[in-house]
Amino acid sequence: MNAAAIKGHETGVILKKEETAEKPAVKWGYKHNGYYLLKILFVTAGFLIAIITNIAFPQKAAVDIKDYIINAFGLSIKLTMNDAYIFVLVGLILLYVVTGLTAWNNKDKRKKYSKNAAFRFALGIALALWDIGGTKLQFFPQPFFPGPAQVIETYLADGAYVVQNTLYSLRLYAAGFSCGVLLGVGTGILIGWFPKVYYWVFPVLKITGVVPAVAWMPFALTLLPNSFSAAVFLIVICAWFQIAFLTAQGIQSTPKQSYEAARVLGSGQFGLIFHVAIPHAMPDIFTGICSANAMAFTTLVMSEMLGQPGGLGYYINQSKVWSAYYKVLAAIVIMAVLFSLINYLIGRVQKRALRWQEGVLKK
Amino acid sequence: MSSSITIAGVNRVYTDSEGTRVEALRDVSLDIRAGEFISIIGPSGCGKTTLLRLIAGLDKPQSGALSIDSTKITDVDPERGYVFQQGGLFPWLTVENNIAYGLKARKVFDKKKSNVGKYISMVGLDGFEKSYPHQISGGMAQRVAIARALINEPKALLLDEPMGALDSFTRSDLQDKLLELWKENGTTMILVTHDIDEAIYLSDRIVIMTPRPGKISKIIDVDLPRPRQRGSGDFLSMRRDILELFELAQAQPQPEYVI
Predict the structure, then answer these.
(1) Is B78 on the interface with A (CB under 8 A)?
(2) Nearest CA in chain B to A279
C-alpha cells in the first residue's frame, strides 16, 4: 500500500511538471521554504523586540540594579537582573530557532510551528510591554507589577532557597498523590467488585467526597505527628475520593459479555478482575487521576500557605509579608511550569495506557 | 478432538423484571454426534441462544441435564469454545493478544512455542497482529473471535449468530472459512442462526425451534453433497421445505410473470 502511494505521488509530480513547466512547484505556505524561514524570523523578532526594549528604555522604578556573581563551570560571571533577563530571552530565541530548523524536513512539525508562530511573536511583544509598563516606566502600580527582569532576579538572589522550596513542594506532592492514587484505585476496585463493600463504603465516600480536603486541616494538623504528614494526608484524601469514585464506576460498567467471554476462554476470578474489569475501567481511572491531580495542586498550595515550614505556597506567603511581589510572581512562574510538566507526564502515561482507544489507524 | 453432547429433558424458565414467567425452553432433548456440524434455527425468542448458553455452561437449567462425552456440564470449560454474536473481543488487547487470551488465562502461554501466529494465518489475518479491534472490520473481528475460541483446541465450538451483523459478501466468505476450519480440526460445531441458507449451506443437521414455549419442532438431515451449491435445485427445495415449516412460505409474494 505504501509503495503504491509513493508511486502515485511520483506520477502526480511528473504530471504537474508537464503542466506547469516554469512555475514554482511549491505554493506559498508552510511547505514553501521561504515562507517557513520568514515564520522562524517572525518568532525571533518578537523576542528581539523584548531585548531591545529592555536595553533601550531607562528604568524609572527605584529598584537597585545589583550585581550578582554566578560561579559555574569554573568561571565567575557578573550579572545584573537585566543581563539575566536578556540571557533568558536569548535562550528562548535559540530554542525556537533550533526547534524551527530541526522541523525543516518534517511536514507536520512545520505546519504546527507555522501555526504557533503568531502566538510566540505575541509572547515576545507581551514581555516587552510588561517590561515597559512595569519597572521601566511604571505605568502599572508598583510594587505589585514588577517587570520581568525583576522576576528573574528572584532566581539570582534567592535561587538556592527557591529550589529548596520547590523540592519541598514536589516531595509533598509525590508522597500525597502517589498514596492517593494507590488507595483510590485500590478501594475503587473493591467497591466496584464486591457488592458488600459497595453497600458499606460507597455512601461514606459519596458524602465525604464532596467536602474540600482542606476543610479537614484543623484535625490533620492536631492529630498527625508533624505538619508534613498532615499535608500529605490532605492531598491523599482529596485524590483518594475522586479516584475511588471513578474507578468503582469503571469496574461496574464492564459489560457482562466481557466477563462471559473471558470465562469461556478459561479465565478465573483473578483474571476477571485484573484482565477484564481493570483494563475496562482504565479510561475512567485516568479521568479520576486527571481531575484529582488538579485538586491535589490546590490542596498542596493551600496547605503550604496555611501551615507548612516550606514549599512554594510557603514561599509566596513569606514574600508577601515583605511586599516582595516579584518573588510571588517568580514562585507562580515555577508552579505554572512544574504543574504543566506534571500534567504533561500524566498525559503521556495516559496516552500510552489507553493507546487502544486511539481512533486512528496506524497503517 | 471432538465431543458428543447429550441434552435430556431440559427446562429453563426466566422471570423478567415485571414478574412474568417466560418459558425459554420446555422439555428439550437432543443428541449431538461427535464431529457433527449442527445448526439451530428459529425465530427470535425461540430459546436457541438459551440452549447454546446452557451447553456452554454460562447458564443452568431448572430441570433436565446436559452432558458432554457423558460428563455432566456444570460450569464453563475452555473445552467448549464460544463465539458471541458481537464478537465480544477485548478492545484493549491487540488482535494477537485477543487470540492469545485463552492460553494466558489457562496459564499455558509460552511466547517461544506459541502457536498464535498459526491461528492468525488460519483465519487470514496476517499483518493485523498489532491492530486493535476497533481498527479492523466487523468480518475480521468475527474471525478473530473464532480464532480466539479455536486456540484452546475445543472439542466443541458454539457459535451464536456469529455472522448476524455482517454484509452478505463477508458472510459467505466467513461461512467458507468456517467449513475449512471444521474440516481441518474436526471439532463438533453448533451454530445458532436465523439464516436458513446459512444453515443448509453449512450443516449436517438442522434443528428447528419454535417459540413460546421454546422447543424443538423438527430435526432435518441435510444430505446434500459437499461443497454445496446455493443455487442448486435440491438446495432450493430444502429451503422451501423449511420455510413451509415456519409457515413463512405463504407470506412470500407469489411470483408474477410479466412478459
Answers:
(1) yes
(2) B92
Residue among A266, A276, A356 minimizing CB distance to B106: A266
CA distance B199 to B222: 9
Q: Averaged over A143-163, what is the pLDDT? A: 88
Q: In what order do the strands lie in the sheet with B5-15?
A: B21-32, B5-15, B63-68, B71-72
Interface contact B109, partner A, CB < 8 A? no
B135 touching chain A per CB within 8 A: yes
Expressed as residue numbers, the domain containing A107 is: 25-145
Give the pLDDT confidence of A85-123 residue by residue, as tens digits.
999 999 999 999 999 999 888 888 999 999 999 999 999
CB contact under 8 A, A264 and B76: yes
Query: What is the per-residue pLDDT across A24-65, written as a single tens digit (0 to 9) for each?
Result: 567 888 888 889 999 999 999 999 999 999 998 888 877 778
Domain holding B176, by residue range, is: 5-79+154-251
Residue B52: predicted pLDDT: 93
Q: Given CB atoms, is B119 within the 8 Å cutoff of chain A?
A: no
Question: What is the count of structural domains for chain A?
Answer: 2
Average pLDDT of the residues in B119-127: 87
Q: Which of residues 142-201 of B touch A (CB under 8 A)?
A: 148-149, 152
- Write out chain B residues lying below 8 Å of A361, CB-based: 131, 135
A140 and A202 together in one domain: no
Distance from CA of B103 to the nearest CA of A (A): 8
Q: Has residue B162 been placed in a domain?
A: yes
Put simply, whether A260 touches B (Cβ < 8 Å) is yes
- By DSSP bridging, strand B21-32 and strand B188-193 are unpaired
> Considering chain B, what percentage of its residues have pLDDT values greater than 90?
31
Range name among A174-178, B121-125, B153-157 with the lowest pLDDT average: B121-125
Q: Does residue A176 sit in the same domain as residue A275?
A: yes
Phi-psi region of B187 (alpha: psi -120 to 50; beta: other; left: phi over 0): beta
A280 at interface of B, judged by CB pairs closer than 8 A: yes
Residue B240 sits in a domain whose CATH number is 3.40.50.300
Say whether both A126 and A206 belong to one domain. Answer: no
Confidence of residue B248 (pLDDT cuts 50, 70, 90): low
> What is the CATH number for A335?
1.10.3720.10
Give me the residue from A258, A268, A362 closest to B90, CB to CB.
A258
CA distance B83 to B92: 18
Say if residue A203 is in the same domain as residue A337. yes
Dump pLDDT digits (tens) for A192-244: 999 999 999 999 988 988 898 889 988 988 899 888 999 999 999 999 999 99
Chain A, nearest residue to B92 by Cα: A356
DSSP H helical ranges for chain A: 2-19, 33-56, 81-102, 107-131, 148-193, 195-209, 217-223, 227-252, 256-264, 269-271, 278-307, 312-321, 325-353
In a domain, B89, yes or no: no
Of A266, A275, A359, the CB nearest to B78: A266
Which value does ipTM take for this structure?
0.87
Q: Is residue A225 part of a domain?
A: yes
